[in-house]
């Protein structure tokens, strides 16, 4: 039997465990710091309502991932749902991605249209040569729509004073900056949520059923170059190590700490059956006055039946967990330094923190675990982050 160590039991760690089981011949140990598997994707309960830490809806364009997951955790489509965004300038809620049906109704449509036409004449040159998020968006949709939808939101999302500071934006919706079609947010992807009342929870147990799971446990010391760790006071060597945690932790912050943003998360029960309009599951707030970025009405996803409804509110924060790797070039370069010190045989770094990629979602964690298994079965591993050069097509970040 070959031995594997998985560090972290979130979606990426559990998916990796299941792929190793499917591959066969592995003796796997999974180490998880928390008292449960699944991290923020795990279902919690408040006021009798199931919820997760922020929305965790299953969205993918990857047929293999969808089929694999749907067979284990049957998924209900929520393709009809719309994202709407509060735009303070107009005191109105509009669809996101920005939709021309709304734009045509805006009070300053003539000026906006002039800007859009100018951008079209420039063939979106501004967007293609953009150096930062602001350039990209102004180059795509013009100043006015940037001010309404993008500027305030991204400043509070990333806790920056200026969107020019955001200088990587491969997670930004290239190609769909302006939509002129149906308002449903994701009409080109599978957009779903589990049927089960406890959401994704059964996946975590199912995926790790053949694995030695150590909860409330952390590695004492890492010697990643030699695929050894000190665990529960003993030195242990493994044939393969799959890390799903931030790479700086594995390498003793030798290039400095990798920055993350966290979330303050508030739960509020309302005394009505629903509070959001029919097809609205999320509300985004693009204004810069309020601190919250997003509200989610959970029963829209879970279909929980109750005379009351639960809404979750997210507020970006400097503490509160390693949820959001920063989309700044200097931080991405620092992550690359760490990855280039990882061995390229038998050490994988997957998942959102493990890849240090904000736009990496639930489906991408599963996809990376599948790629990892292919690399192990076929040999030829060239990089510790599987699929790093893969263009996660719908990557928007959530
Ligand atoms: C608020 C929010 C909302 C989101 N909404 C969506 C969505 O709607 N749809 C979607 O597809 N994606 C969404 N995502 C992204 C998606 O949920 C994540 O990309 C995915 O769940 C990450 O899984 P992971 O296993 O990589 O990391 P995590 O879920 O962070 O798991 C890492 C695990 O490692 C453990 N750990 C950390 N340090 C150590 C250590 N030293 N030793 C041992 N264990 C350790 C942690 O306790 C955790 O369990 C959202 C993300 C956030 C933050």
Describe the model:
- The protein is α/β, with parallel strands linked by helices and 398 residues long.
- Among the domains are: 2-42 and 200-258 and 326-378, FAD/NAD(P)-binding domain; 107-175, no CATH class.
- It has helices at residues 11-23, 63-72, 100-103, 109-121, 125-128, 133-141, 143-158, 201-207, 247-250, 298-302, 329-341, 351-355, 362-378, and strands at residues 2-7, 26-31, 44-46, 49-51, 58-60, 75-77, 82-87, 92-96, 98-99, 178-179, 190-194, 212-214, 221-223, 228-231, 234-237, 240-243, 260-270, 280-285, 294-297, 309-317, 324-325, 347-349.
- α1 packs parallel to α8.
- The longest helix is centred in the last third of the chain and has 17 residues, at 362-378.
- The two termini are 38 Å apart.
- Mean pLDDT is 91; it is low at 390-396.
- The structure holds flavin-adenine dinucleotide.
- Residues 7-13, 31-34, 39-41, 53-57, 59, 218, 244-245, 249, 263, 314, 323, 351-354, 360-363, 365, 398 line the site of flavin-adenine dinucleotide.
**CATH architecture descriptor text of the domain at 2-42 and 200-258 and 326-378:** 3-Layer(bba) Sandwich
User: Rough shape?
Assistant: globular
DSSP E strands, number:
22
Which stretches of 5+ consecutive residues score pLDDT under 50? Answer: 390-396
Determine the CATH superfamily of the domain at 2-42 and 200-258 and 326-378.
FAD/NAD(P)-binding domain
Structural class by helix and strand composition: alpha/beta
Percent helix: 25-40%
- Determine the CATH topology of the domain at 2-42 and 200-258 and 326-378: FAD/NAD(P)-binding domain
Radius of gyration over C-alpha positions, nearest whole angstrom: 22 Å
Q: Mean pLDDT score, rounded?
A: 91
Count of helical segments?
13
Strand line-up across the major sheet: 8-7-18-19-20-17-21
Query: Cα distance, first to last residue?
Result: 38 Å
- What ligands are attached or bound here? flavin-adenine dinucleotide
| The CATH top-level class label of the domain at 2-42 and 200-258 and 326-378 | Alpha Beta
Largest beta-sheet characterization:
7 strands, mixed
